[in-house]
Write a structure and sequence with these properties.
The chain is built from eight helices and seven strands. By secondary structure, the protein is an alpha/beta fold. The protein is globular and about 50 Å long. It binds nicotinamide-adenine-dinucleotide.
Amino acid sequence: MNQLDMKGRSAIVTGGASGIGLAIAKRLAQSGANVAIWDFNEQSMAEAVKVLGAVKTHTAKVDVSKIEQVEAAFKSTVAAFGKVDALVNSAGVAGKNATVADYPVDEWIRVHDINLNGTFYTCRTVAAHMIKNNYGRIVNIASVAGKEGNPNASAYSSSKAAVIGLTKSLGKELAKNNITVNCVTPAAVKTPIFDQVAQSHIDYMLSKIPMGRFGLVEEIAATVAWACTEDCSFTTGATFDLSGGRATY
Ligand SMILES: NC(=O)c1ccc[n+]([C@@H]2O[C@H](COP(=O)([O-])OP(=O)(O)OC[C@H]3O[C@@H](n4cnc5c(N)ncnc54)[C@H](O)[C@@H]3O)[C@@H](O)[C@H]2O)c1
């Protein structure tokens, strides 16, 4: 494993209690960062901090789809660490598998509230702080579904396409403030999110990956943690592909 330098840096990882977010939180901790996990699952969050080994850790129980909770979590994190250098948005849900014609309206709204609005609320909340500090790194976890559109997953695909668009806009807005904003588009990675998805959909996603295997959480974490370092200084608004060859653009 390459050694990344996050010494003296403080990072927030939403959805950091499980799966991809947890692997990112661990990699940032191993790289020397103080790590705050924001998640709405208190029990997994308590388990996660035990294995992090960060210099300093902080947890905040937060539903990212509620802006007041995001703002309160940010205040408590700044109180704990003094500043925030990096934000990783990994909190997300898969949503129901159904055709557009059958897609329940309340489920469509829930998926966008968490995956898209949640990402907007956290970015909005940290932006002013990072501008004041003239430094920041933001990485959003989108999905290959946002690039390609998976059938029977329209809400998920649409929310992740919007996260890519949000990343591009914010990257350009903050380009003169020494703040980079990037996203990654993983293909299927075996995590607890699979429990929310139909087996036929998992089979479909695997069949589209030229490498013929699922991604590993550590593979996603390696790219994301690098994009949280000072070295990621001339790339912003970009989409890093992590799809085993599925989306070569
Ligand atoms: N696993 C994959 O195949 C895959 C592929 C591409 C993109 N992604 C994206 O990666 C991210 C992480 O997914 P994962 O596979 O690690 O899933 P996961 O279910 O293991 O982890 C998601 C975490 O987000 C938290 N969360 C969900 N809704 C929340 C909310 N409203 N507020 C706060 N926390 C909330 C959950 O409690 C959980 O800890 C998601 O955004 C997902 O869409 C996953």
